[in-house]
Specification:
Elements: E1 6-8, E2 15-17, H1 27-37, H2 40-47, H3 56-70, H4 75-86, H5 96-102, H6 107-120, H7 130-133
Antiparallel strand pairs: 1-2
Helix pairs in contact: 4-6, 5-6
């Protein structure tokens, strides 16, 4: 049985563990301990596994964006593709061709990357603006 013995710490008055897990416990053992101590809900919340219903969509969107950008070989390009794919580029001075030129791509190559990201992130496809086509 893996039980943490607790002692009073002199500087905080808080209860602190006197023994640490030595890496010999499995995840199953840790979950059993948390269950026995009534900490499963706190563990889920800490790990972000249990979100409020109104937060689930936002958490998924953030995770999708992080995975998308973290997995990109060229993060600068990925950010510019994301800016264009979401429509934020409409408020910028750069056109699709300007973005493409910035990364050494043709406007068609950049447009294809935008379309692919929109599909991966399940974003609505937006019509290419007239200013983007120039």
């Amino acid at each position: 049985m893996n039980r943490l013995d607790r002692e009073q710490t002199p500087w905080t008055g808080a209860v602190a563990p006197t023994a640490r897990y030595c890496g010999t416990d499995s995840v199953t053992d840790l979950l059993k301990d948390c269950s026995r101590m009534g900490l499963l809900d706190e563990l889920r919340a800490t790990l972000g596994l249990e979100a409020r219903p109104d937060q689930r969509a936002a958490l998924r969107a953030v995770r999708d964006l992080v995975y998308e950008l973290a997995g990109a070989r060229n993060r600068d390009l990925a950010v510019d593709v994301l800016i264009h794919a979401t429509g934020i580029a409409e408020f910028d001075q750069l056109s699709l061709r300007d973005y493409a030129r910035k990364h050494g791509l043709s406007h068609e190559g950049f447009r294809k990357q935008v379309a692919a990201m929109q599909q991966r992130l399940n974003l609505p496809r937006r019509a290419i603006q007239q200013s983007d086509a120039n």
